[in-house]
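Action item from last week, closing it out:
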Amino acid sequence: MIFSMTGYTAVSKDVGRGVLFLELKSVNSRFLDLGFRITEELRAVEPQLRELISGKVSRGKVEFRINLLPSPACLARTKPSEVLLSQLASWQEDIRRALPAAQPLTVAEVLQWPGMFGDPTASAETLQSDCLALARQALDDLLASRAREGEKLSRMILDRVGSMRALVAEVAPRLPTLIVEYQEKLATRLREVLAAQDEERIRQEIGLFAARIDIAEEVSRLTAHLDEVERVIDKGGVAGKRLDFIMQELNREANTVASKSVSSDVTRIAMDLKLLIEQMREQVQNIE
């Protein structure tokens, strides 16, 4: 299965003292780039979260955000710690005397302060365990999202591969005829230019130019590269960089076909091939 690097999920869980709200978002990146925005109460689990994500995701910019929000039920049955509120007020006054420009604490910051609704050390391990469990659930959802998007990308690329095969099949049988027609035109022009009809010289020139315009080798390589695209997609896994390299090779062959073309039909086919390759290349950038 091919995976996209784009995905999003959001999950939450009531853990008694509040609600854990977790967001995972991933976008394109050449490498694995992890970013975390974690409440201080859960900062200790960041190394485990990094290991968890890097074990399942190989490429992409992944943003992980988690907050512990007070639930309405929790607020209804508990009150903020008066001792801690008094201590925070005292600290804030001291800080603002020393730093007048310092911003005061917001209500949300006060409510999320460790220990505001109970002993923070008593449930620290439970909270971290809940965080890891929720992260595993979110990661599974993210991978499923990336897999669904990857399936769409696979179908699109294989559809373009089919279109390219049709173009290659259209041009391949016509190559011998095109070369013969070009040889005849070239022979006529050479006879007109050369005062003395040196047939040996004419045959040499025709052979030289025929070799220059022969695209049979490029057509063969195009077919081989298309086979490789299908093989890589069928194999699945981390395939983005491999597919990106194949796109470069396909584009190289299409450019050569266009440069060697001596027929408007071949030029048209080469341009159509380049358009399909560019469409695939754009989507390959999204593949892990």
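Closing note: The chain has ten helices and four strands.
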